[in-house]
Amino acid sequence: MSGDSLDRRTLLRLAGASLLVAGCRTTVDDPTVEVPVVSPPPPSPARVEVSPSPAGLPPAQRYVPLAGERLPQCKQVAADFMQALATRTRGQQPADVMAAAAAFTGTGFRPDPAMLIAAPLYTEPLSAGDIVYPQFAGLLPLSPGARRAAMMVVVRQRSLTGGDTSTQTVRICDVRLEVQQNLWRVVELVSIGGEPVGRPPGLDPRAARVLDDPRIELPDTARWDVHAGRISLDLLDVLAVAAAAAPVAVTVLRSGHPPNVFATPKISNHTQGRAVDLWRVDGQPVVTTGATAGSARALLAAVTADRRLLQAGSPEGSDLDGAGRRSFTDLVHSDHLHLAVGGPSAPA
């Protein structure tokens, strides 16, 4: 498809097509849940455009699930929803953008609260949303037959101001989905990763070291957490240890992660500023490489040698120390490494 701008009607048709692929379906893992067949992605670098191409901005490309993804249809819908929500063409009002994103929503989705949450996405008249990565935050049940999901979608929003100055912001967005009529649908937008917080003068050197390390890729949402003093310095030390083992890409620190461990009353270590998730290690997605060998394995070994580490979650088959200890594996952690430290909460 060309890079020409797509109108809203075309976007809606494409959105529907991504969910109903030629009417062909198959049962995956859970015999009670039918999901649409996803055709193999086109050869790189070609991808299917699903977003408008605002004049003056390079076109956004549709996210394609990576090799090894579990529940790829769930990830596709979450990614498509956030891409639609972060893309605004000339003359569109925020309500028009929400109407386009509604193609990926299901029963129970409430557009008015979602509009309030998404308002910071619409400070400029033109924008394009690029999906960096959609990562699991929770599944219920915790199995391939999950029917509810919390997804953290890392989205890069490129914008043009009224004076045609380009800017970009990378946010972590908390999106909730469930299976409805055998299809994954978005039912709630919980967060788009908070508001900008400037880097303060006199920042603690341990925090500055992480912010300035070229081996650590941080979304803006995560940087704001560090700027605001919401993150444990012990955790930032462990993150520096991880980056010394291999370059890393952070999904989330605190903001943009569900406040509780999904579908439980337990407060997440992320909420307490004591956990970080890494979706890419040494340039390779964790979901594709796993963590039984290579750079991801070496990173796990390096951080677990630090006594401050409380938890190390990773893909199945990569438990370092056996059941009931610091290291653990499960389906939610099939696409990232989760590192958490103990100690008192950082100031909120």
Structure summarized in a few sentences:
Helices cover 24% and strands 25% of the residues. With 348 residues, it is of the alpha+beta class. Helix 2 runs antiparallel to helix 3.
Task: Describe the protein.
This protein has 2 domains: 8-191, Nuclear Transport Factor 2, Chain: A; 205-341, 2-Layer Sandwich (Muramoyl-pentapeptide Carboxypeptidase, domain 2). With 348 residues, it is an alpha+beta fold. Helix content is 24%, strand content 25%. Strands 7, 8, 9, 10, 11, 12 and 13 form a 7-stranded mixed sheet that branches. The chain has a 4-stranded antiparallel sheet with strand order 3-4-5-6, with helices on both faces. The chain has a two-stranded antiparallel ribbon with strand order 1-2. The protein starts with 7 loop residues before the first helix and ends in a 7-residue tail after the last strand. The relative contact order is 0.11.
